[in-house]
Specification:
This protein is 73% helix and 2% strand. By secondary structure, it is mostly helical. α4 (77-96) runs antiparallel to α7 (164-186) and α7 runs antiparallel to α8.
């Protein structure tokens, strides 16, 4: 199914959106770096800070971008807004609950993947946008645009441990499929990192679940 709008229309929405919300883009980056700083805490307070920041970012994208701007050219945008707001509620609920979910950076391959995905969202994504001719205020920007925000979220989820990670990953993974469509149909080169990140997340969660089951069964008398 082809998109109900052209690449020019898609990017023109971002131009209008970025101008209207300036300097919210700076706030988005500040929140992203605060979430990274919270990783160093490796504590309940750090977990709550990260999840609260993710809830704020997804709420902004739900209402600020999807509902008020993207809906002008895409009939499905309000459905996307509802999906993003649901994800924000899930992050907020996890932030206030006392579940086993935790965020930490370890000396392992999963942490390396998570940090790489985060670096892509914050640094490589806007560089690719500039190279393609639609970066900064003429294209999607981290924190205030869905795709780079979803990539960052996937990176954070790769650094998370606990049973709830799977549930928190469902919507970001589904949105990664939208990123693939944006790359193929609209030629948004930087969005190619989103489906790649989604596949990485799926593999990591699937293999982690498999090894957990193997570990439990090996300790069963």
């Amino acid at each position: 199914m082809s998109a109900p709008f052209t690449t020019e229309q898609f990017l023109s929405v971002f131009v209008a959106y970025n101008v209207a919300i300036w300097p919210a883009q700076i706030v988005g980056y500040i929140l992203g770096f605060l979430a990274l700083a919270a990783l160093l805490l490796n504590s309940l307070a750090g977990k709550r800070a990260i999840l609260t920041i993710l809830a704020v970012l997804w709420t902004w994208n739900a209402i600020g971008y999807h509902f008020f701007f993207f809906a002008e050219i895409n009939p499905a945008a309000k459905g996307f807004a509802a999906l993003f707001f649901l994800q924000a509620i899930m992050f907020a609920a996890s932030a206030v609950s006392s579940n086993e979910l935790r965020f930490s950076v370890l000396w392992d391959f999963r942490s390396a993947l998570g940090l790489s995905v985060i670096f892509y969202a914050i640094v490589i994504y806007p560089i690719l946008g500039l190279w393609a001719g639609h970066g900064l205020l003429a294209g999607p920007m981290f924190g205030v645009a869905p795709c780079p925000t979803a990539i960052f979220t996937i990176g954070m989820l790769l650094l998370a441990r606990g049973k709830r990670v799977v549930w928190l990953s469902i919507i970001p993974f589904l949105w990664s499929l939208v990123g693939l469509a944006a790359t193929v149909q609209l030629g948004i080169l930087e969005d190619l990192g989103l489906p790649v990140a989604g596949i990485v997340l799926l593999i990591v969660l699937a293999t982690g679940s498999f090894y957990d089951r193997v570990g439990r069964s090996s300790h069963t008398p």
